[in-house]
Request: fold
Amino acid sequence: MMTRTPMKVTEMLQQRELRTQPLPSAKQTEKASNVLAKTREPVHVFCRLKPLLSDGDLCCVRVINSTKIILEQPFQVLDNKQAAQKETQYVFRHIFESQASQQDIFSAVAQPMVESLIRGHNGLLFTYGVTGSGKTYTMTGDANNQGIMPRCLDTLFRTISGYQAKKFIFKSDHLNSFEIQLEADARSDRHIENNQYFKRELKRKYAGPLTPCQDSCDLTLLQGINKDNMYAVFITYVEVYNNSVYDLLEEGNVEKRLQSRIIREDANHNMFVHGVREIEIESAEEAIEVFQTGQKRKRMGHTVLNAESSRSHSVFNIRLVQAPANCQEELASPDARTITIGQLSLVDLAGSERSSRTKNTGLRLREAGNINNSLLTLRTCLAYLRENQQQTNAAPKIIPYRDAKITHLFKNYFDGEGQVSMIVCINPRAEDYDENVQVMKFAEMAQEVQIVRATPIKYNLGLASGRRKPNKIRKTPVSNLDGFDNAEDKNVDADVRLVYTLGLGFPEYKIDTPAQAESSIQDLTQYLVRRTERRKILRTDLESKFDGLRVHLMQMEKENLSLNRELDSLHTCYKKELDRSSALESKIRVHENSIDFLNNTVKRRERQIDDIKRQLKHQQTLLDKKDEEKENQRKTLNAKLTVERDKHNRLRKLKPATLEDSIRSKDENLSEQCSSREQSSAVESLRIAFVTTAKSTPRNTKYLTRRGTATVVDRRHRSFLTPDEGHIIKRSRI
Ligand SMILES: Nc1ncnc2c1ncn2[C@@H]1O[C@H](COP(=O)(O)OP(=O)(O)OP(=O)(O)O)[C@@H](O)[C@H]1O
Reply:
């Protein structure tokens, strides 16, 4: 059994906890760690198991408890039946077993993210898993089992109900931000919208296949709403198909070919789809209707593993815009800087799949290739992020967000904005074992990545908190009173004292008969008694309120004084810090200048080194050329020498033979023809000539003399023949 030992798991958990818990040593370190613990959080990874289709199906998963799960290699996959079954244990934040309801998932995973959204924080929630493992079911659900998205919308609208701004007060600036419109402009936009037939229809009824859940959560548990703010909700819905981004809510009918969009970075370094259509919605029903319109454009396809398989990654963004209101329930300032924007991105990733199992070909195969590539990039990004966070001493790796559109869109979540959660969907069938192993490994790695949670900057207008409350309180009984006046329902328990009215108008009475007069007088008396009592109650209430107000004012005055003192000390601190920071800035400038200078010097030196290298190279080339020339000359001289040697050898062989022949013939002629002294002296002179010629002949060569004797000539000696005797006189060379 290849299990992670319990020790290892606890170590892992301890390590994870260590990263979020403050170190107890020095006070300063503790403070710094506290800040880290507050602002850093790991990716939350949840695991959801899909129910098996039939009881006979083999299962490859065993749940240990709500956080531990074991993946078992199915027996039939093993070659050898005797071999030990391979098991791997994984630990997640929570494991939802197959019987877990959609509500369970929403409450544990998405509800806290909705709360964060209301507070103005960003959040990313995505589903990850093999094709057909239940990602879309978890994210969207169906008519009877609504998923996370409709539940989020329902919770959100139920929470902000009564605090929503009028439509078109907030307007998108098409650069991922919002501006505040004047009421007159907003009214005119509302008028235009009301005139559009489509919108009127939409408002009248909604009867789509998916409806928002009506009981998504217990609202008493939800926190985070600022009752002094006004809220508006905007949605965008995009898909990433074959690594291109498309706006599923683009204007035009559903058959229209969608335009590919680019991803851009806004002024706050958040990534957004440029030119995407942001639709302001006022209710969950309206949001679902808009979602369904986009859904019709989403690319779905049939694969062997899932009849309705998502062939693209879909990103549904809920953006909550809020700004402070004044006590008249209008926005307190037209300044766009007072706006806080929170974004919750719900992402349904396309399923990872193996082409061998899906039997995909053609377009489906290309889609699958693109899906797998983008998921691989997601895995790489998270792996590099984790590495960078764990090895703080090494040079950080560049995260390849731009390699896939989906990771490019996620960049600002991973780089530090908001909370990231992932639901890993697992189909526990034995056939999915291999792919589930990969999914689990990725999930395990992902939860070691730390994300910095950014706190939104809220613009302080200096308005008192709770300013909208009195107006709201006043509105409630007044509206109740309206009903009280008109309806017969006498049991309405209107809190009339708070609006300081003495009650209903003077009752009508008729005094036609004495009996009528009697009863009218009684009624009027009762009415007046009630009225007097109410007056008393109101007076007491008013007096107590005056007292309360006085106490409250005194308290506020005290608070104000202490706050002013605090403000003064803060001002002093601020001034000191300002001085310190300007001193640091000037230091930085000096260091920057010296860095610039050093950089320039380094560049100059590098240029010089380059020049010297070039010169050396040139000299080397010249030397090589000279060597080559020398070699050529040597070869030419050698060739000439060989030719000369051959010539010389040939001459040496030829000359003595020729001369010997001529001497012999002349000797014979001379001996035959004359015996005279003159004649013989001529012969002698000829002989001397021969000897002179023979100087250059090789050593130990034999020559014929007149007497027919052989003579050996040594090269080291010069040899002569005496004219009378013909003897050879040898003389040593000097
Ligand atoms: N927890 C569950 N309970 C009941 N049915 C489920 C559950 N999860 C998934 N299903 C059913 O399984 C089928 C496939 O699920 P779904 O379409 O959500 O898979 P997917 O992971 O999104 O697939 P793909 O990646 O191909 O889009 C659907 O018919 C869905 O209703």
User: Anything to note?
Assistant: Confidence is low (pLDDT under 50) at residues 1-37, 483-498, 696-734. Residues 517-622 form one domain.
